[in-house]
Amino acid sequence: MAGKSRSEQRIGLLNGFAAYGMWGLVPLFWPLLKPAGAVEILAHRMVWSLAFVGVALLFIRRWAWAGELLRQPRRLALLTVAAAVITVNWGVYIWAVNAGHVVEASLGYFINPLVTIAMGVLILKERLRPVQWAAVGVTVVAVVVLTVGYGRPPWISLCLAFSFATYGLVKKKVNLGGVESLAAETAIQFLPAMAYLTWLSTRGESTLTSGGAGHSALLAATGVVTAIPLVCFGAAAIRVPLSTLGLLQYLAPVFQFLLGIAYFHEEMPAERWAGFALVWLALSMLTWDALRTARRARRWAPVSEPGGSQVAPAVAAAAAAPAATAASATTAASATTAASAATAASAATAAATDA
Questions:
Q1: Counting C-beta atoms within 10 Å of the first and last residue's C-beta, which end of the chain has fewer, N or C?
Q2: Contact 175, 344 (CB under 8 A)
Q3: What φ, ψ does residue 351 adopt, rounded to 5°?
Protein backbone atom coordinates (compact mmCIF):
# COMPACT_ATOMS: atom_id res chain seq x y z
CA MET A 1 0.00 0.00 0.00
CA ALA A 2 2.83 2.36 0.87
CA GLY A 3 4.46 1.72 -2.51
CA LYS A 4 1.20 2.39 -4.27
CA SER A 5 0.72 5.57 -2.23
CA ARG A 6 4.19 6.83 -3.13
CA SER A 7 3.54 6.01 -6.78
CA GLU A 8 0.24 7.89 -6.69
CA GLN A 9 1.93 10.89 -5.08
CA ARG A 10 4.64 10.89 -7.76
CA ILE A 11 1.96 10.84 -10.47
CA GLY A 12 0.17 13.65 -8.67
CA LEU A 13 3.31 15.75 -8.39
CA LEU A 14 4.17 15.23 -12.06
CA ASN A 15 0.66 16.30 -13.05
CA GLY A 16 0.88 19.29 -10.72
CA PHE A 17 4.20 20.39 -12.22
CA ALA A 18 2.74 19.88 -15.71
CA ALA A 19 -0.40 21.91 -14.97
CA TYR A 20 1.32 24.87 -13.33
CA GLY A 21 4.21 24.68 -15.79
CA MET A 22 1.82 24.99 -18.73
CA TRP A 23 -0.02 27.87 -17.08
CA GLY A 24 3.32 29.52 -16.41
CA LEU A 25 4.43 29.21 -20.03
CA VAL A 26 1.12 30.21 -21.62
CA PRO A 27 2.32 33.83 -22.21
CA LEU A 28 4.39 32.35 -25.04
CA PHE A 29 1.23 31.15 -26.78
CA TRP A 30 -1.06 34.19 -26.92
CA PRO A 31 1.29 36.37 -29.06
CA LEU A 32 1.29 33.59 -31.68
CA LEU A 33 -2.37 34.36 -32.35
CA LYS A 34 -1.75 37.89 -33.62
CA PRO A 35 -3.07 39.68 -35.65
CA ALA A 36 -6.22 38.47 -33.87
CA GLY A 37 -7.21 40.91 -31.15
CA ALA A 38 -7.73 39.97 -27.51
CA VAL A 39 -11.53 39.82 -27.79
CA GLU A 40 -11.41 37.57 -30.86
CA ILE A 41 -8.89 35.28 -29.15
CA LEU A 42 -11.13 35.21 -26.07
CA ALA A 43 -14.18 34.27 -28.14
CA HIS A 44 -12.29 31.46 -29.88
CA ARG A 45 -11.05 30.21 -26.51
CA MET A 46 -14.65 29.92 -25.30
CA VAL A 47 -15.89 28.16 -28.43
CA TRP A 48 -13.02 25.71 -28.83
CA SER A 49 -12.85 24.93 -25.11
CA LEU A 50 -16.48 23.82 -25.22
CA ALA A 51 -15.75 21.67 -28.29
CA PHE A 52 -12.75 20.04 -26.61
CA VAL A 53 -14.53 19.40 -23.30
CA GLY A 54 -17.61 18.13 -25.14
CA VAL A 55 -15.50 15.49 -26.91
CA ALA A 56 -13.88 14.57 -23.58
CA LEU A 57 -17.30 14.11 -21.95
CA LEU A 58 -18.46 11.95 -24.86
CA PHE A 59 -15.37 9.81 -24.40
CA ILE A 60 -15.79 9.32 -20.64
CA ARG A 61 -19.62 9.19 -20.90
CA ARG A 62 -20.22 11.50 -17.97
CA TRP A 63 -23.49 13.36 -18.60
CA ALA A 64 -25.70 12.71 -15.58
CA TRP A 65 -24.54 15.94 -13.90
CA ALA A 66 -26.02 18.05 -16.73
CA GLY A 67 -29.59 16.94 -16.11
CA GLU A 68 -29.23 17.51 -12.37
CA LEU A 69 -27.74 20.96 -12.97
CA LEU A 70 -30.62 22.04 -15.21
CA ARG A 71 -33.02 21.29 -12.37
CA GLN A 72 -31.12 23.55 -9.95
CA PRO A 73 -31.68 27.23 -10.86
CA ARG A 74 -29.49 28.52 -8.03
CA ARG A 75 -26.44 26.54 -9.17
CA LEU A 76 -27.10 27.61 -12.76
CA ALA A 77 -27.18 31.24 -11.65
CA LEU A 78 -23.91 30.81 -9.77
CA LEU A 79 -22.32 29.18 -12.82
CA THR A 80 -23.46 32.12 -14.92
CA VAL A 81 -21.72 34.46 -12.49
CA ALA A 82 -18.62 32.24 -12.61
CA ALA A 83 -18.67 32.29 -16.43
CA ALA A 84 -18.95 36.09 -16.45
CA VAL A 85 -16.12 36.57 -13.96
CA ILE A 86 -13.74 34.13 -15.68
CA THR A 87 -14.54 35.84 -19.00
CA VAL A 88 -13.20 39.08 -17.52
CA ASN A 89 -10.17 37.24 -16.13
CA TRP A 90 -9.34 35.50 -19.41
CA GLY A 91 -9.87 38.65 -21.46
CA VAL A 92 -7.73 40.90 -19.28
CA TYR A 93 -4.96 38.29 -19.14
CA ILE A 94 -4.84 37.77 -22.93
CA TRP A 95 -4.87 41.52 -23.52
CA ALA A 96 -2.16 42.11 -20.88
CA VAL A 97 0.20 39.52 -22.37
CA ASN A 98 -0.22 40.73 -25.96
CA ALA A 99 0.08 44.37 -24.86
CA GLY A 100 3.42 43.78 -23.12
CA HIS A 101 2.30 43.58 -19.47
CA VAL A 102 3.36 40.03 -18.62
CA VAL A 103 5.12 41.02 -15.39
CA GLU A 104 2.11 42.97 -14.15
CA ALA A 105 -0.15 40.04 -15.05
CA SER A 106 2.06 37.67 -13.05
CA LEU A 107 1.69 39.98 -10.05
CA GLY A 108 -2.06 39.37 -10.17
CA TYR A 109 -1.56 35.67 -9.49
CA PHE A 110 1.05 36.35 -6.81
CA ILE A 111 -1.39 38.48 -4.82
CA ASN A 112 -4.44 36.32 -5.59
CA PRO A 113 -4.09 34.14 -2.43
CA LEU A 114 -3.95 37.27 -0.29
CA VAL A 115 -7.01 38.73 -2.02
CA THR A 116 -8.78 35.41 -1.38
CA ILE A 117 -7.98 35.71 2.31
CA ALA A 118 -9.27 39.29 2.41
CA MET A 119 -12.51 38.21 0.72
CA GLY A 120 -12.84 35.39 3.23
CA VAL A 121 -12.78 37.95 6.02
CA LEU A 122 -15.08 40.48 4.37
CA ILE A 123 -17.62 38.10 2.81
CA LEU A 124 -17.41 34.81 4.72
CA LYS A 125 -16.58 36.48 8.06
CA GLU A 126 -13.56 34.20 8.56
CA ARG A 127 -11.13 34.96 11.37
CA LEU A 128 -7.45 35.43 10.57
CA ARG A 129 -4.43 34.59 12.65
CA PRO A 130 -1.90 37.37 13.39
CA VAL A 131 0.54 36.21 10.70
CA GLN A 132 -2.23 36.28 8.09
CA TRP A 133 -3.19 39.81 9.10
CA ALA A 134 0.45 40.81 8.82
CA ALA A 135 0.68 39.27 5.33
CA VAL A 136 -2.40 41.21 4.19
CA GLY A 137 -0.91 44.41 5.63
CA VAL A 138 2.38 43.87 3.81
CA THR A 139 0.44 43.33 0.58
CA VAL A 140 -1.38 46.64 1.00
CA VAL A 141 1.98 48.37 1.40
CA ALA A 142 3.25 46.51 -1.70
CA VAL A 143 0.32 47.80 -3.78
CA VAL A 144 1.08 51.36 -2.64
CA VAL A 145 4.75 50.95 -3.59
CA LEU A 146 3.82 49.49 -6.98
CA THR A 147 1.36 52.32 -7.57
CA VAL A 148 4.26 54.75 -7.11
CA GLY A 149 6.47 52.60 -9.36
CA TYR A 150 3.94 52.36 -12.19
CA GLY A 151 2.66 55.90 -11.80
CA ARG A 152 -0.85 54.39 -11.49
CA PRO A 153 -2.49 51.59 -9.53
CA PRO A 154 -1.50 48.15 -10.90
CA TRP A 155 -5.04 47.74 -12.23
CA ILE A 156 -4.19 44.73 -14.42
CA SER A 157 -2.88 42.82 -11.39
CA LEU A 158 -5.78 43.89 -9.19
CA CYS A 159 -8.36 43.01 -11.85
CA LEU A 160 -6.86 39.54 -12.35
CA ALA A 161 -6.53 38.89 -8.62
CA PHE A 162 -10.04 40.05 -7.66
CA SER A 163 -11.76 38.40 -10.63
CA PHE A 164 -10.01 35.11 -9.93
CA ALA A 165 -10.69 35.28 -6.19
CA THR A 166 -14.37 35.95 -6.94
CA TYR A 167 -14.37 33.04 -9.37
CA GLY A 168 -12.93 30.75 -6.69
CA LEU A 169 -15.51 31.89 -4.16
CA VAL A 170 -18.39 31.22 -6.55
CA LYS A 171 -16.97 27.86 -7.63
CA LYS A 172 -16.69 26.79 -4.02
CA LYS A 173 -20.44 27.30 -3.64
CA VAL A 174 -21.25 25.52 -6.93
CA ASN A 175 -19.16 22.46 -5.99
CA LEU A 176 -18.92 20.94 -9.48
CA GLY A 177 -16.03 18.92 -10.91
CA GLY A 178 -13.42 20.60 -13.08
CA VAL A 179 -14.31 19.12 -16.48
CA GLU A 180 -18.04 19.43 -15.84
CA SER A 181 -17.66 22.99 -14.58
CA LEU A 182 -15.62 24.06 -17.60
CA ALA A 183 -18.24 22.48 -19.87
CA ALA A 184 -21.08 24.33 -18.14
CA GLU A 185 -19.25 27.67 -18.11
CA THR A 186 -18.17 27.50 -21.75
CA ALA A 187 -21.71 26.43 -22.71
CA ILE A 188 -22.93 29.67 -21.11
CA GLN A 189 -20.19 31.61 -22.92
CA PHE A 190 -20.77 29.87 -26.26
CA LEU A 191 -23.66 31.87 -27.72
CA PRO A 192 -22.20 35.34 -27.00
CA ALA A 193 -18.82 34.15 -28.31
CA MET A 194 -20.31 32.73 -31.51
CA ALA A 195 -22.39 35.86 -32.01
CA TYR A 196 -19.27 38.01 -31.77
CA LEU A 197 -17.29 35.78 -34.14
CA THR A 198 -20.17 35.79 -36.63
CA TRP A 199 -20.35 39.59 -36.43
CA LEU A 200 -16.60 39.82 -37.07
CA SER A 201 -16.96 37.53 -40.06
CA THR A 202 -19.78 39.58 -41.60
CA ARG A 203 -17.58 42.67 -41.31
CA GLY A 204 -14.69 40.87 -42.96
CA GLU A 205 -12.55 41.33 -39.83
CA SER A 206 -12.28 37.71 -38.71
CA THR A 207 -8.74 36.31 -38.83
CA LEU A 208 -9.91 32.69 -38.69
CA THR A 209 -10.19 32.41 -42.47
CA SER A 210 -7.95 35.28 -43.55
CA GLY A 211 -4.89 34.29 -41.52
CA GLY A 212 -4.18 30.97 -43.24
CA ALA A 213 -4.42 27.35 -42.14
CA GLY A 214 -1.69 27.66 -39.52
CA HIS A 215 -3.37 30.62 -37.85
CA SER A 216 -6.73 28.82 -37.87
CA ALA A 217 -5.14 25.77 -36.24
CA LEU A 218 -3.62 27.94 -33.52
CA LEU A 219 -6.99 29.55 -32.80
CA ALA A 220 -8.57 26.10 -32.53
CA ALA A 221 -5.73 25.07 -30.19
CA THR A 222 -6.96 27.59 -27.60
CA GLY A 223 -9.38 24.87 -26.46
CA VAL A 224 -6.52 22.44 -25.91
CA VAL A 225 -4.42 25.09 -24.14
CA THR A 226 -7.34 25.72 -21.79
CA ALA A 227 -8.40 22.14 -21.07
CA ILE A 228 -5.17 20.10 -20.88
CA PRO A 229 -3.69 21.92 -17.84
CA LEU A 230 -7.08 21.59 -16.15
CA VAL A 231 -7.03 17.82 -16.67
CA CYS A 232 -3.50 17.63 -15.23
CA PHE A 233 -4.53 19.77 -12.29
CA GLY A 234 -7.47 17.49 -11.60
CA ALA A 235 -5.16 14.46 -11.58
CA ALA A 236 -2.87 16.25 -9.12
CA ALA A 237 -5.64 17.50 -6.85
CA ILE A 238 -6.86 13.99 -5.98
CA ARG A 239 -3.35 12.63 -5.32
CA VAL A 240 -1.38 15.25 -3.41
CA PRO A 241 -2.20 17.23 -0.26
CA LEU A 242 -3.77 20.66 -0.59
CA SER A 243 -0.73 22.21 1.09
CA THR A 244 1.49 20.77 -1.67
CA LEU A 245 -0.78 22.27 -4.33
CA GLY A 246 -0.48 25.54 -2.43
CA LEU A 247 3.27 25.51 -2.96
CA LEU A 248 3.10 24.30 -6.57
CA GLN A 249 0.70 27.10 -7.52
CA TYR A 250 3.50 29.66 -7.24
CA LEU A 251 5.26 28.03 -10.19
CA ALA A 252 2.89 29.66 -12.69
CA PRO A 253 3.40 33.32 -11.70
CA VAL A 254 7.14 32.68 -11.17
CA PHE A 255 7.45 31.40 -14.75
CA GLN A 256 5.35 34.29 -16.03
CA PHE A 257 7.46 36.81 -14.13
CA LEU A 258 10.71 35.33 -15.47
CA LEU A 259 9.32 35.29 -19.02
CA GLY A 260 8.29 38.91 -18.70
CA ILE A 261 11.82 39.96 -17.74
CA ALA A 262 14.04 37.52 -19.67
CA TYR A 263 12.02 36.87 -22.83
CA PHE A 264 9.75 39.88 -23.29
CA HIS A 265 12.36 42.28 -21.81
CA GLU A 266 9.91 44.30 -19.76
CA GLU A 267 11.33 47.05 -17.58
CA MET A 268 11.71 46.51 -13.84
CA PRO A 269 12.79 49.74 -12.12
CA ALA A 270 13.74 49.72 -8.45
CA GLU A 271 10.24 50.67 -7.26
CA ARG A 272 8.71 47.64 -8.95
CA TRP A 273 11.37 45.33 -7.54
CA ALA A 274 10.57 46.71 -4.09
CA GLY A 275 6.84 46.13 -4.59
CA PHE A 276 7.36 42.56 -5.81
CA ALA A 277 9.75 41.88 -2.91
CA LEU A 278 7.04 42.93 -0.46
CA VAL A 279 4.50 40.67 -2.17
CA TRP A 280 6.93 37.74 -2.00
CA LEU A 281 7.54 38.50 1.69
CA ALA A 282 3.79 38.39 2.33
CA LEU A 283 3.47 35.09 0.46
CA SER A 284 6.39 33.62 2.42
CA MET A 285 4.69 34.59 5.68
CA LEU A 286 1.41 33.10 4.51
CA THR A 287 3.00 29.84 3.34
CA TRP A 288 5.03 29.45 6.54
CA ASP A 289 1.92 30.01 8.64
CA ALA A 290 -0.12 27.51 6.60
CA LEU A 291 2.55 24.81 6.82
CA ARG A 292 3.03 25.38 10.55
CA THR A 293 -0.71 25.15 11.18
CA ALA A 294 -0.99 22.00 9.04
CA ARG A 295 1.81 20.33 11.05
CA ARG A 296 0.05 21.30 14.27
CA ALA A 297 -3.22 19.85 12.98
CA ARG A 298 -1.52 16.53 12.14
CA ARG A 299 0.14 16.43 15.55
CA TRP A 300 -3.22 16.82 17.30
CA ALA A 301 -5.14 14.52 14.98
CA PRO A 302 -7.44 12.10 16.84
CA VAL A 303 -5.77 8.79 17.71
CA SER A 304 -7.85 5.68 18.38
CA GLU A 305 -7.30 4.00 21.76
CA PRO A 306 -7.42 0.21 22.13
CA GLY A 307 -11.02 0.46 23.30
CA GLY A 308 -11.99 2.28 20.14
CA SER A 309 -12.42 5.79 21.57
CA GLN A 310 -10.68 8.84 20.12
CA VAL A 311 -8.22 11.03 21.98
CA ALA A 312 -8.95 14.78 21.95
CA PRO A 313 -11.18 14.92 18.86
CA ALA A 314 -12.31 18.45 19.69
CA VAL A 315 -8.72 19.67 19.93
CA ALA A 316 -7.93 17.99 16.60
CA ALA A 317 -10.89 19.61 14.90
CA ALA A 318 -10.00 23.03 16.29
CA ALA A 319 -6.46 22.73 14.96
CA ALA A 320 -7.46 21.32 11.58
CA ALA A 321 -10.09 23.92 10.72
CA PRO A 322 -7.78 26.96 10.48
CA ALA A 323 -5.22 24.85 8.68
CA ALA A 324 -7.75 23.95 6.02
CA THR A 325 -8.76 27.59 5.67
CA ALA A 326 -5.16 28.73 5.30
CA ALA A 327 -4.30 25.97 2.85
CA SER A 328 -7.34 26.60 0.68
CA ALA A 329 -6.62 30.32 0.65
CA THR A 330 -3.00 29.70 -0.25
CA THR A 331 -3.92 27.40 -3.09
CA ALA A 332 -6.51 29.70 -4.58
CA ALA A 333 -4.39 30.97 -7.42
CA SER A 334 -3.83 30.05 -10.42
CA ALA A 335 -5.19 29.31 -11.36
CA THR A 336 -5.02 29.45 -13.98
CA THR A 337 -7.34 30.12 -14.42
CA ALA A 338 -8.15 28.55 -14.44
CA ALA A 339 -8.75 28.27 -14.28
CA SER A 340 -7.07 28.31 -13.14
CA ALA A 341 -7.64 26.41 -10.23
CA ALA A 342 -11.35 24.53 -10.52
CA THR A 343 -10.93 20.84 -10.01
CA ALA A 344 -10.27 20.53 -6.29
CA ALA A 345 -13.36 20.95 -4.16
CA SER A 346 -12.47 24.33 -2.65
CA ALA A 347 -11.78 27.91 -3.61
CA ALA A 348 -8.23 26.87 -4.39
CA THR A 349 -9.35 24.77 -7.29
CA ALA A 350 -10.29 27.72 -9.38
CA ALA A 351 -6.65 28.03 -10.16
CA ALA A 352 -7.06 25.90 -13.10
CA THR A 353 -8.61 28.42 -15.38
CA ASP A 354 -6.11 31.11 -14.61
CA ALA A 355 -4.20 32.19 -17.65
A1: N
A2: no
A3: -50, -25
Q: Are 300 and 88 in contact (CB under 8 A)?
A: no
> Are 196 and 43 within 8 A, CB to CB?
yes
Asked whether the beta carbons of 352 and 341 are under 8 A apart, the reply is yes
Q: Where are the beta strands (DSSP E) in the chain?
A: 303-304, 310-311, 338-342, 350-353
Contact (Cβ atoms closer than 8 angstroms) between residue 354 and residue 331: no
Q: Give the C-alpha distances (Å, rounded to integers) separating 338 from 19, 213, 296, 342.
A: 10, 28, 31, 6
Which of the residue ranges 1-5, 171-175, 181-185 would you say has the lowest mean pLDDT?
1-5
CA-closest candidate to residue 41, choices 54, 32, 52: 32
The residue that leads in pLDDT, 297 or 336, is 297
Using DSSP, how many helices (H) and how many strands (E) does the chain show?
A: 15, 4
DSSP codes of every residue in 54-79:
HHHHHHHT--HHHHHHHT-HHHHHHH
pLDDT, one tens digit per residue, over 210-231 is 888 999 999 999 999 988 888 8
Highest-scoring range by mean pLDDT, 167-181, 264-278, 298-312? 264-278
**Of 68-72, 90-94, 273-277, 334-338, where does mean pLDDT reach its minimum?**
334-338
CA distance linking residue 125 with residue 303, whole number of Å: 31
Q: Using an 8 Å Cβ cutoff, are 90 and 45 in contact?
A: yes
User: What value does the mean pLDDT take over residues 39-53?
Assistant: 94
pLDDT of 188 strictly over 70: yes
CA distances from 50 to 15, 54, 97 (A): 22, 6, 23
How far lies 227's CA from each of 19, 276, 307, 342, in Å? 10, 30, 49, 11
